[in-house]
Design brief:
GO molecular function, one term: DNA binding
Family: Belongs to the small heat shock protein (HSP20) family.
Order of helices and strands: HHHEHHHHEEEEEEEE
Shape: flat
Radius of gyration: 22 Å
CATH class of the largest domain: Mainly Alpha
CATH superfamily of the largest domain: lambda repressor-like DNA-binding domains
Mean pLDDT: 74
Helix content: 25-40%
Number of strands: 9
CATH topology of the largest domain: 434 Repressor (Amino-terminal Domain)
Protein name: HTH cro/C1-type domain-containing protein
Length: 235
């Protein structure tokens, strides 16, 4: 079986942070994100959104291409395509016919998603929690599938009506002699950001984890009623 090569976004974020004598917590505070997000960004597991990328450039006084080395990554992708062209994989990574240009398309999609409004965008859909958002008369209810994730490893933040669910899935220790034929389960840091469909009271939010599903209920802000102004008669 040919092993799938994981694409990472090479960057100099860790070096710049150390150069400016910032801890991961301090950098997270200045960028308005969680420490887990900083760790994931430094490891190349996520792409920053455009607003976050601009904040990084301003903070470090550096051009975007000086922080994120896309040219290096693009060359790596096409080297991989050339080395595998014409070869047949015994077990494709997604249990589907092998497409030699899949990685190039994935990288292009990742670069396109740089301009989305989310705080950061995961490079692999499998690393993201799947969510359902439902609006009731009095609240917004969010359900996130987080199988195998401990509740103390999950953070939920709401800022400017944008909810961010982040955390880490710690995989069970696997002995080297326990060879896998095929493995789709993911471990490591994850993050998902999305806009809520209504104005909410963030300080009144409630969350509970049950059977691997995180349920968050956030009360909606009561709509402001128009105030009728009486016009005094002229005397």
């Amino acid at each position: 079986m040919t092993e799938k090569q994981e694409i990472t976004i090479k960057n100099k974020l860790r070096d710049l942070r150390k150069k400016h004598e910032l801890s991961q917590e301090e950098l997270a505070d200045q960028l308005g994100i969680s420490r887990q997000s900083v760790i994931a960004l430094e490891q190349g597991k996520y792409m920053p959104s455009l607003p976050l990328a601009v904040s990084m450039c301003n903070l470090f006084d550096s051009a975007f291409e000086d922080i994120f080395e896309f040219e290096h990554q693009i060359n790596k992708v096409f080297e991989n395509i050339n080395s595998n062209f014409g070869k047949e994989l015994a077990m494709p990574s997604e249990m589907s016919p092998w497409r030699p240009f899949r990685e190039a398309v994935s990288l292009r999609d990742a670069m396109d998603r740089l301009f989305e409004d989310s705080v950061i965008t995961p490079k692999a859909v499998g690393a993201m929690p799947k969510i359902d958002i439902r609006e009731t008369k009095n609240a917004v209810v969010i359900k996130a599938e987080l199988p195998g994730v401990d509740e103390d490893k999950v953070d939920v933040e709401i800022m400017d009506n944008v909810m961010t669910i982040s955390g880490e899935k710690v995989d069970e220790k696997v002995e080297e002699d326990e060879g896998y034929y095929y493995k789709e389960s993911h471990s490591g840091a994850f993050q998902r950001s999305f806009s809520l469909p209504a104005d909410v009271k963030a300080d009144k939010a409630e969350a509970e984890m049950k059977n691997g599903v995180l349920t968050i209920t956030v009360p909606k802000v009561e709509p402001k009623k128009a105030k009728k102004i009486a016009i005094k008669p002229r005397r």
